[in-house]
Design a protein that fits this description.
7-stranded mixed sheet, 24% helix
């Protein structure tokens, strides 16, 4: 079956799963909360195929695709944890203990005519972590990605 060219060229195309699957099984400690968050088997598929991922386009989609390379650092530096009880029956098994949301920030280099400049665009997003009934934490997705409105950072 042929896919729509826009979908095939989407930055979060499922062919990028290999980047994410290399993290499978890793346990990363968050520096602020000291929680240990595991990258479980559902992470790669959710990161590239969630409803959020399917609907973002342009700079936000590219930012999410590029953020995958620094997923360890995002988990380590995530801050401002907010806990929410699970409300969806489809997650009653894997998120029986609810959801944790963390604020993350990351910067990506600005390119001019395919050459990296000294500037960086800064993005903010939310890491989504599910909590199982026995208290284990699993990285689930990165959502709500927004470019910060400030002028690009300069590398000094």
């Amino acid at each position: 079956m042929m896919t729509d060219p826009v979908e095939r060229n989407h930055p979060l195309d499922p062919c990028r799963l290999d980047i994410l699957k290399k993290y499978l099984g890793e346990i990363i400690e968050n520096k602020q909360t000291k929680e240990k968050i595991e990258i479980g088997t559902k992470f790669a598929d959710e990161y590239t195929g969630s409803k959020y991922s399917e609907h973002i386009r342009g700079a936000r989609a590219k930012a999410k695709a590029n953020a995958a390379q620094g997923i360890r650092e995002l988990v380590e530096s995530a801050a401002n944890k907010i806990h929410s009880e699970n409300k969806k029956s489809k997650h009653k098994k894997d998120a029986k203990g609810g959801w944790n949301y963390y604020t993350v920030r990351f910067a990506l280099p600005v390119y001019d005519n395919n050459r990296k400049t000294e500037e960086y665009n800064v993005y903010m997003g939310r890491l989504v972590v599910n909590r199982t009934q026995d208290g284990k934490l699993y990285l689930y997705d990165l959502v709500e990605i927004k470019k910060e409105a400030s002028t690009p950072l300069k590398n000094t």
